[in-house]
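quick one, 399 residues, struct below
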Amino acid sequence: MNIHEYQAKAVLKEFGAPVSRGIPAFTPEEAEKAARELGGPVWVVKSQIHAGGRGKGKFKELSPDAKGGVRVVKSVEEVKASAKEMLGNTLVTLQTGDAGKQVNRLYIEEGAAIDKEFYLSMLIDRETSRVAFVVSTEGGMDIEEVAHSTPEKIVTFSVDPATGIQPHHGRAVAKALKLSGDLAKQAGDLVTKLYAAFTAKDMSMLEINPLVVTKDGQLKVLDAKISFDSNAIYRHADVAALRDETEEDAKEIEASKFELNYIALDGTIGCMVNGAGLAMATMDIIKLYGMEPANFLDVGGGATKERVTAAFKIITADPKVKGILVNIFGGIMKCDVIAEGVVAAVKDVGLKVPLVVRLEGTNVEAGKKIIKESGLNVIAADDLDDAAQKIVKAVKEAK
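---
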């Protein structure tokens, strides 16, 4: 689960991390009030969307020469004028794609006199099952470009959970950022606080870009992006309350209500599969035969008729879907349950695109019988390869 910058900074502030003063705003009037409360003389007006590259982004509704989604201004009037331009308009960045994201909230923050910019992030290293730090002197830039062009400028290390954060981790960060004296001490203190926040809140990623040194020699978190482990949200009611559903795909929100693992993609063939590995293989073979999957959808091993029905409705709600492939290998998941769900969903919402169903495993004959006797226009498949070829052919012929 992702949250906005101002929310991320509030979380970090709870653990003592040095963040600038700032106030969220949802209207131009609130932005003006926030600016007066902060006092200036320099303010930063920041669009709050779940995407990076806001400063370089452009608003669809404004002229190409208009400023981006992060603006440094020097008067209360400019704060309000920027808020009027930004709120309600669509910001397009490299991470949002051409569709962009509508800006519904802003963060009005006091300006900072920046001397140096750094990059610091924390994430879960799946290979070592440890929290890893990624640090670079190249702050304010796309870290992917730094990794590609100058990988030697990126330092990584992980923390042994048996010992937790230690003074040498702080020294490693200070050395990587070429900090000494009091700044090195600040780095060590910050690392300790960030690790405490990361582990206490079950984060999966924390990115600070940039982490800055101000003109008066203070280390400060100037931007922050946090993702939380969705499987641990039940432990954190305060984190769950930060969720902004307007930033999420409506289909993914609906899927979460039925405990379905669903991710919307850009293709035209909807997929309903049981098991993450089989779902990945299904998407791969669709691409092998020249088309793109419209989603990743794992109904899980213990799906009920109701969950299967919900899954099918979510797939058909996507206007990009021109064909559907149901691929079930019944183990814990029974083929007849899948069949009942598919039939119920089709009868409820109708079927306007080709549907290929491949069933194998537990209760497969019962499942096939349910499909056959339903009277639905369903294309049966013998195996995954056969199913992929049939759905690709059916979609192409339906064009």
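The chain has a mean pLDDT of 91.
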